Structure prediction request, 290 residues.
Amino acid sequence: MSRPPTFVPPAGARAYRLATARGGFAVVDAPAAPGVAVKGTALLLPGFTGSKEDFIGLHEPLAAAGYRTVAVDGRGQYETPGPADDEAPYAQEELARDVLAQAAAVGDGPLHLVGHSFGGLVARAAVLLEPDAFVSLTLMSSGPAEISPPQQQRVKLLRDVLAVMDMARVWEAIQALDTPEDADDLDAGLDDRADLRRRWLATSPAQLVAAGRQLCAEPDRVPALAALPLPKHVLSGERDDTWPVPLLDDMAVRLRARRTVVRGAEHSPNTDRPLETAEALAAFWDSVAV
Prediction:
């Protein structure tokens, strides 16, 4: 989904396995910059086919703004192991409880939660389970319910292919079919770069299938989320084929949320325009009274 410029953590950041009550999760953890007043911590959840590296460009500018950032591979994503043939561990509530365990293990507060795309669905599920675990929620390019019909067709095709082909063969098939105009689709980022191929091969196919089912069948949970006093932020690019921007505008109104549109960005403002995205995140977090 996202095309990170590199898979190498920035200076000062540390890649390690975060130990939690629900197992270990691979993270990239970047502290606030030296000499800067520490304002809080943010837990960053990646989207469909993504990983913690999707937030690489955000760490340094957010560190300079006084925020520690912890980007995580969810269960079955890239460097966090998960079952390859059992969807049960990837049920949305299970993933949400993983996030709550990660939040408890990160420790430093106040703790802000950010979910990109599919990660946004998981983030809001976690907040609905335990609202007091976080001081704010940012939904980044993540909509109110299921994804758009054209994207549902693509996800269903991927699920069908994963039922009959292994990950390596699916990768090769995607390379043969991918076109430049697909750059903002759900499988964008699956190009011939070795690091992206490595991420794809390390991702659990059961996680992809389960996540795909959720993306195609997610109910509208905006009313329940709107009922929480938690400060909310809806951030997106100015174009999005997964959840159209007018739908995100309307969701922000329904949530009474802060709304940010990052100019020049599409479905992944975190990689398309990381500096502008980091600036918007920090401004929102600065506005949250704790």
Observations:
- Residues 180-192 have pLDDT under 50 and may be disordered.
